[in-house]
Prior knowledge:
- This protein is an alpha/beta fold.
- It has a single domain, classed as Spore Coat Polysaccharide Biosynthesis Protein SpsA, Chain A (Alpha-Beta Complex), CATH 3.90.550.10.
- Helices cover 35% and strands 21% of the residues.
- It contains six helices and seven strands.
- It has helices at 25-45, 75-86, 103-113, 147-155, 165-168, 174-182, and strands at 3-8, 49-56, 67-69, 89-94, 117-121, 128-135, 159-161.
- Helix 1 links the parallel strand 1 and strand 2 (49-56).
- The longest helix is centred in the first third of the chain and has 21 residues, at 25-45.
- The termini are far apart.
Amino acid sequence: MTWTALVPLKAAAERKTRLANRLSSRERLDISDKMFKRVMAALEQSPGVSRIAILSPERPAAGPSLWLRDQGRGINAELPIALVSLGSRNVIVIHADLPLVSAADIAALIAVARYGVAIAPDRHESGTNALGFKDAARFPFAFGPGSCALHQQAAGSQGWLVKRPGLAIDIDDGDDLDFAVSSGFQR
């Protein structure tokens, strides 16, 4: 069974704006690019992933040739449209800001997703950093504050949490950056 990975990626100028009080715009873009490359490498090294697509308002300089234009409706509105074009079965949605993610983390997400919906919470178990679906048709995406609980509720008895440091550690703000660095991320 092969899987499609969809990676939402904001426009360069919109990435990691909550780090503006700590990092210059160049540093924020550099960190964002480094994390995106890490996510891409983990997906490319994962034997279960046969196709990778990027959902972004601008074509990324590096990455797979499969690019879906984000029309600016917000991630929760964009994802169902993107998944229709990709097919909604055997798909994972993974954020581009996971500095320590590995192919083993991707394999763990897929292993759980084979049975329904795999939900990878952030380290606070509030947000969602990745989702895996046996069938994503009509899934009500709820990325944003409290998304982990909302995704669990939507998945019901077919949803399971996948708690792994590589999927849980993301960088949204200064505390996240400090935690990632203390966990091994090298800026």
